[in-house]
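> tool_call: predict_assembly(chains=two)
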Amino acid sequence: MGELAVTVIGHDRPGIIADVAELLAGLGMNLTDSTMTRLRGHFAMTLICTGDPARADVEAALGPLGADGTLDVAVRPVHPEPEPTDDGQPYVLSVHGADRLGIVAGVARAVAEFGGNVTDLTTRLVGDLYLLVAEVDVPASAAERLTERLTGVAGVLNVEVALRPGEADVL
Amino acid sequence: MTGTVRPVVRAPAGVLSAAGDPVDPADPEMVALVADLFATMAVSPGCVGLAAPQVGVPARVFVVDVSGHPKARTCHGPFALCNAEVVSASRWEKGREGCMSVPDLTGDVRRAANLVVAGVAPGTGEPVEIRTDAFEARALQHEIDHCAGLLFLDRVAGAHAVYARKTYL
């Protein structure tokens, strides 16, 4: 049984998810993890599905979705990933300030330098305000030094930064 | 004293991210500022609190009024506090917050639903202790954050806890 990653990006309209899910179900592909949102009004969906059909068959089935040029559909095989290791503490990183080039690049590089792994990320531009909120797994020994580094990066970028412990599972 | 409506400052204005200075509660300028905060809050639909940095003044003073709000339990009516600090906080709950200084976004923030705050009253300088809960507690923490240069954006619960505002009051 193969694992395929499908991305669908383009003009939003009612029924895109229904169309994609029906076509996959019709092929016997099991839709496992998926995420969909609108990015600046654009429809954006990424999903993982598993099943026996070959990539070419899935591409052929989904192809008509992009025929009118409003949606870009891509299918590619992926290898099953091992369960993530539990070697970091969850933090929520919040960055906001006047929009400028390089905020995400500067902040994300600092996180990476200290072994932090971004597990979820949202950015928003509303008016002049740029906002980044990331969930980050940070090695326990690095949190303090990462906070110092982020404060330095934020000073250069003239943005505000906050790194706070994320919520732990309570039950 | 009748206050004057002041323009509300929006992020990313620097004054919203600067820790406010402690204020002299007897300073006539500060008393006038409180009147302006009340006046500005009164003409702002849905506004239940306003802090000095939101009208461009980096000072530790704010007004709150959750009267009649459906989510309020304990309610002290309209009041102002100078140099307020959280004394105790417990029973943390997540709730959706907006802000006049961040008009296009809302976010889920964990706040204490049981709260004790200490400050001083403008004008008299009398010590004040507020014991409150639920929505008024949330509003107080939001305003105390403003006085410390923090926005709700600094405390959102996660990457999927920020939303485009759908309803403008």
